[in-house]
């Protein structure tokens, strides 16, 4: 599984012959790409409806959008994409990957003006190469994109033991999400081998030093390796 961070919360994930793009927002200082530079994904996954997560969906008209039914309906109406409306706790098979949606503790108006009502519960996604079951499977590879979230005990009680992510992308920017300290606790609770900071340094309120996150992860006793990727950098999981 190939993971590429394009800054903010935007990730490309390749599993087999399937390309997924999460929260496309290329107007951020970490990437040198525009949406038009990116090879069209097979699927676009949206964690919630804020403008810094759905801004560039329209650049990928051939992609199938996966989101809550409310947000999927909005995207279909605005951009005409085919959509898969799913909800919290559900798993869908998308090409060579399985995507499980889990809650995120955040808000979910559509676009940055918050002028439209709720787009359903905000979410995170676990992308895996096998369908999750209650039987632990060390051969399965899984990546957790936490979305915009605060610290929540479901990371410890549900996501870690049931979905078993090997790696997690965690927001560290503070102000709108967790900061480095609580994000480090999340990494510990998730029991992942690899942790990637995201949702930071995009706007002044969320400027952070990723080294502080790495120190906090070590301080809570986690053995996770922290990877502060550069913009458009790829990690092979």
TrEMBL record:
Domain Metallo-beta-lactamase: residue ranges: 7-199
InterPro entries reported for this sequence: Metallo-B-lactamas (IPR001279), RibonucZ/Hydroxyglut_hydro (IPR036866), UPF0173 (IPR022877), UPF0173_UPF0282_UlaG_hydrolase (IPR050114)
Record has Hydrolase as a keyword: yes
Alphabetical UniProt keywords: Hydrolase
GO MF, one example: hydrolase activity
Family: Belongs to the UPF0173 family.
PANTHER family: UPF0173 METAL-DEPENDENT HYDROLASE MJ1163, UPF0173 METAL-DEPENDENT HYDROLASE MJ1163-RELATED
Protein name listed in UniProt: UPF0173 metal-dependent hydrolase HLRTI_002958
Species for this entry: Halorhabdus tiamatea SARL4B
